[in-house]
Amino acid sequence: MYKTATYIDAEIREYEGHPLINALPCINSLEQTAELIRRTPEVRPEEVILPAHIRRHAMLRIMDGFLYPTKAHLQLEQTISSMIRQGYLSRNIADKSYQETLNSTANFTQHVSRNAGNEALVSSVIGCSGAGKSTAVEAVLASYDQVIMHPTYQHVQIVWLKVECPHDASVKSLCINFFRALDLALDNNSQYEKQYVKPRSNAEMLLGDFARIAALHSIGLLVIDEIQHLERSNSGVSERILRFFVQLTNTIKLPILFVGTPKAYELFSPSMRSARRASQFGSINWNRFNTTDKTGKGSDWDRFFDRLWSLQWFKSPQPLTNEIKNLFWDYSQGIAHVAVTLFYLCQTRAVTVGREKINKELVDSVFNDELHMIRPMIRALQSGLDKEIEKYSDLEIPKAALIQHDPVYEAHEKVTNVKVTKSEDSTKLQQLTSMLEQMGIGDDIAPAIAEQAVSELPSGNLFDLVAHIKNLEEKAQTKPEKKKAKVVKLTPAFVENDLRLMVHSKGGTYKTIKNEGVILRLSDYL
Fold this sequence. Notes:
By secondary structure, the protein is α/β, with parallel strands linked by helices. It is 47% helix and 6% strand. About 6% of the residues have low confidence.
């Protein structure tokens, strides 16, 4: 079901008069983003006394209902928010630029440039398998209505579309996946796929249709997941698809977010790497959780696992010890999906055997029995040896990529603009974080809010910064008045002998149009 557009007041001058932008939700603060995407399954008291074979079904909520937001999630949300809005700036359905965009898709594939140029609408999220990058992207996208109807403009807007790169890495399969995702978003009963995917459709025709439909529905962000699958194709096919994506951003200003494993770094040609470095949105290296504590408030791993450990379906919840936390780190090496899976399997094993306790012996047994297939990969990470890790290309971001592309800590500095090299700024940041926590802001969110405040008011003292944060909070809570869309009543224009004027609701239409000479009598010509 489509959402009917309701327009908010533009937050900045550039967004004024852009229906596609002003139909989107308000721009989120870091705190709002964290609350929006956080998912914590509920452990109901009546469930902990259920028999083990039933209780383990309730525990499944851990697998698909747990998401703990980190600074990387906050950066990702800001990146997606900016890409969608910037991509719409030159695609305004309220003026002629929209028609110009549609016209630009004519003969689209005949002018594929081999030079990506200075492109600022391409970004990527690259990380090892199981680190949670696709889950994070989906959580951020879910905060937007995917399809918005603009009755005033008779326009159907698709805010985002997520397409998986096909395993066979062919152009036709990619286009099929695109049309299927489009039909699913529009609840279209596969109409686009039936219309454009024909047995005789060649790659050039399909790519042209791809571009025209993307422009027609004003897609705000195209997410290409599992982009590393292109590595399986010959270089000519992968290069052609990458050039097509770049042309989409250049011609119809469609932002594209690539999501994939470290294998994807091998795909980007020098032109694509230039586009990535030129991008104002940067790229996010989605690393494994780290155990380094730079803030004095615990590492990302500490906060993540503390929250995960609270999800116990035991009759007597077990306190978390450093021994258990370190053991889970050793067996998961900071890969979120492995840690969550291991925790779920340990719980189910504990209640099944009737000993509701997770200890070292149990974790060792579960890992070796039920996760033995990933044991070689985990052992490679445990070794820390490059030659072992490189045997599994999906495990780790290459060190060369970390040098050439923005590392996570540098990306965080771009978001917050905090000069961490200055000791006085670092002290101020820690003091402000402590004050925010005393004010009731959670210790997982307070550091990010403090960094944002310091970046926006670098010369302010602690009281100025707290007042600044309060002011931002009040602005965020003030909802802009919703403007009602103007309903324009259309008056039909008729021409002489217009057939529409000859139609009678009570019959007699045939006789009328025959008398007017519209229907010819064949006998006159025999």
